[in-house]
Design a protein that fits this description.
This protein is an alpha/beta fold and 279 residues long. The chain is 41% helix and 16% strand. The chain contains 10 helices and 11 strands. The radius of gyration is 19 Å and the shape is globular. The protein starts with a strand and ends with a helix. It binds NADP nicotinamide-adenine-dinucleotide phosphate (NAP). NADP nicotinamide-adenine-dinucleotide phosphate binds next to helix 10.
Length: 279
């Protein structure tokens, strides 16, 4: 049986450390979260971010804007928040309603307050190995690996998914830790064959059971990023968990794996932003 990589427990530990560091600061770290429209999943995420801020003793401000908000109105709000001394991090919950250019909005957030790590300046910093905010999901996964003494150095790592927020930064972070990294996507041929080479397999697709037990090398570490709903409406990942658990040496559950760590790393990034702003 595989070791369960308990992201929920680690997230609680990270948030406790963040809270303690925040308590010692002259001013509370401040996070502004913007939500546009009525996407129910976005509402759940924003509520959980507010709860995390409360737990960590942060100042938390929420801006719930109507569906018909224009791109310019949104950018004007971001510019105001960029100028606020008590706000260290700004997050605009994605997806945005049709008609708003996500890239333009993300570009408007000051790179120094971009605690999601989505601004091209922070993405570029990651590419060239300079300091910047790391995107929370891959950052959280690296923390899980470190907590369980799983060192990517010299290992074959396969990342399924090439999005800007998960797949690509994940591959870069594994590469930074000296993994030998392959990225797969929807046009990859013989996905199973590539996956079977992996010592560390990260699935970030968003399709139920895209990773089956025959695609996993015995003893591999399997990280399941996805948040899907199965036919019964239950939250699940990309990995056929009951079967893969028997083959892998370690595996993240869904829920309770990567998700809680993504939230915890947002708190960590906000703390880091506040520390930088306060010198
Ligand atoms: P995304 O932008 O939709 O990217 C999905 C990736 O999967 C794409 O690169 C796509 O390839 C690839 N793909 C699709 N079908 C495939 C197939 N059959 N075989 C191989 N690759 C395939 O999604 P994302 O934003 O990266 O998120 C991925 C999943 O993680 C989603 O379930 C999302 O909800 C979840 N997520 C979870 C967290 C968390 O905190 N746990 C955070 C973020 C995201 P192409 O590029 O060729 O289209």
């Amino acid at each position: 049986m595989a070791t369960i990589l308990d992201g929920k427990a680690l997230a609680a530990k990270v948030k406790e450390q963040v809270k303690q560091e925040a308590e010692g600061m002259a001013r509370k770290p401040g996070l502004a979260v913007i939500i546009v429209g009525n996407n129910p999943a976005s509402r759940v995420y924003v509520n959980s971010k507010r709860k995390d801020c409360e737990e960590c003793g942060f100042l938390s401000e929420e801006y719930a804007l109507p569906e018909e908000t224009t791109q310019q109105e949104l950018i004007t709000l971001i510019q105001e928040l960029n100028g606020r001394a008590d706000i260290d991090g700004i997050l605009c919950q994605l997806p945005l309603p049709d008609g708003i250019d996500e890239e333009a909005v993300l570009m408007a957030i000051s790179p120094e307050k971009d605690v999601d790590g989505f601004h091209p300046m922070n993405m570029g910093a990651l590419l060239v190995g300079k300091d910047g905010f790391l995107p929370c999901t891959p950052y959280g996964i690296m923390e899980i690996l470190a907590e369980y003494n799983i060192d990517p150095k010299g290992k074959r790592c396969v990342v399924i998914g090439r999005s800007n927020i998960v797949g690509k930064p994940m591959a870069l972070l594994l590469l930074q830790k000296h993994g030998t990294v392959t990225i797969c996507h929807s046009r990859t041929q013989d996905l199973g064959e590539v996956c079977r080479t992996a010592d560390i397999l990260v699935a970030a697709v968003g399709k139920v059971n895209v990773v089956t037990a025959d695609m996993v090398k015995p003893g591999a570490v399997v990280i399941d990023v996805a948040m899907n709903r199965n036919e019964a409406g239950k939250l699940c990942g990309d990995v056929d968990y009951p079967a893969v658990e028997k083959v892998a040496s370690a595996i993240t559950p869904v829920p309770g794996g990567v998700g809680p760590m993504t939230r915890a790393m947002l708190m960590k990034n906000t703390l880091l932003a506040a520390q930088k702003h306060q010198g």
